[in-house]
Amino acid sequence: MTTRTTILGGLSAALLLCGAAASAQSLTITNARILVGNGTVIDHGSLVVRDGRIAAVSAGVPAASAGRVIDAHGKTVMPGYIDAHRHVVQGNPTEWLEKTAAHQLQDFLDAGFTTVLGAIDPPQLIEARKRIEAGRMKGPRLYVGAIIPLAGALPPSPKAAAAPPGDPARTDPARLPLGTQAAPAIPREQTLRMIEAAKAAGYDYLKTVMNATPGGPEIATQKFVVEEGIKRGMPTITHAVSVRDTLAALEGKPALLVHTPHIGDLGSDPVALKRIIDAHIPMTSTLQVFLPHFGRDGKPLFRDGGPFPFDTLSSAGQGPVNARLLWEAGLKDYGYGTDTQWPPKESLFDELRALSLVFSPAEIVTILTKNAGLATMHGSEIGTLEPGKRADIVIVNGDPLARSADLLNVVTTIKGGEVVFEKRP
User: The domain 23-80+384-425 is classified under which CATH number: 3.90.25.10, 3.40.630.30, 2.30.40.10, 2.40.160.60?
Assistant: First the structure.
């Protein structure tokens, strides 16, 4: 009798948990100013979520509600934020997973980010994703890329050799004059083994870094990586930070360019500008990398936490200028990405500083939501508040269409219909 009672009690508890989870995936938001994300704005509207997906978005009061009812009190309801180029894991990966991950991933939700693309992260981020999906941890929807080298290493430049250990962007070879030496090729069999290992580990993307050398193997290897990735359902995302390397990357036809080129002036190179536009490849912003990040003491810092290298400062201006030139020329799939390890809200503040130089508040909303969703290649599921899409939603105190700074005022974050952050009064 005791055993039977225990079993029944366990079943009842499990059913209650299932019921709670199911109800958490359905809710109704009323009295909201809704930014659908496709250009539509509903000044006095409501939104209904059923089973984790958006069921209805309409003006006025909903015809039928579902689950918990949230009164937005006139606040702005908009799609969840998306960082389509981030480096999430910091320090020792094992220690990060066990000691830091839960807090850090919740920070993303608190800042309004419901989706994050970890462009180069260790398998521990994939394990964190499993824990999130199993309900053992809270965090954004995670997509992860594995690095696949395009060539062997050349001897470091004198500047790089003399530099202390730290962020390689301080001595980026893309900043140097084009040398005369070709980088050594990597055997195809070795590249294929790396791709197969990434697939087996659960990675979503293959990440390449394009630093083309004269007569080097980089473009041919990029084409090979793209082709093999397509066979395995793994799109290739490519780092290219100069105009020269961006043009080289285009020859391999990656699915995403994860940087705005910030070395080289597209304004003086209309042929290059047209080639990038005609390739129809989405791009992420990552403009803040070469803006100083100011700590609490006001000192200008680089993304590795060290002093800011002011010999790279020209990129802080050239990146936004090239971004606007690309936008005006027709690159509309330009999405938000940070390429940083600063806390999510601080990164959002920094990227907004750079984007606001050349984009309007309304354009920034699109870059942060719809376009960033397209950059992850999951735009059919996320990025706008349209029926059928995942119910990834933020409630913001303010009007982001008038003031980009209001994007920092997140009061509620909803991921897949579940409230995962609520700001206390």
Answer: 2.30.40.10
What CATH number has the domain spanning 81-382? Answer: 3.20.20.140
CA 110 to chain centroid, in Å, comes to 16
The residue type of 280 is: H
Domain boundaries, the chain: 23-80+384-425, 81-382
Cα–Cα dist 392/52, whole Å: 9
> pLDDT per residue over 263-285, tens digit each?
999 999 999 999 999 999 999 99
Q: What is the C-alpha separation between 147 and 218, in angstroms, rounded? A: 14
Give the model confidence (pLDDT) of 209-238 as tens digits: 999 999 999 999 999 999 999 999 999 999
Residues linked to residue 83 through DSSP beta bridges, in sequence order: 116
Closest CA to 262 of 228, 294, 226, 286: 286
Residue 157 is predicted with a pLDDT of: 72
Q: In 8-125, which ranges are E strands? A: 27-35, 41-50, 53-59, 68-71, 76-79, 81-86, 113-118
User: Could you give the CA distance from residue 376 to residue 111 in angstroms, rounded to a whole number?
Assistant: 19
| pTM (predicted TM-score) | 0.93
The residue among 303, 398, 394, 283 whose CA lies nearest residue 350 is 303
DSSP assignment letter at 328:
H
Phi, psi of 383 (to 5 degrees): 105, -20
Please choose, from the candidates 85, 86, 33, the residue with its C-alpha nearest in 3D space to the C-alpha of residue 57.
Answer: 33
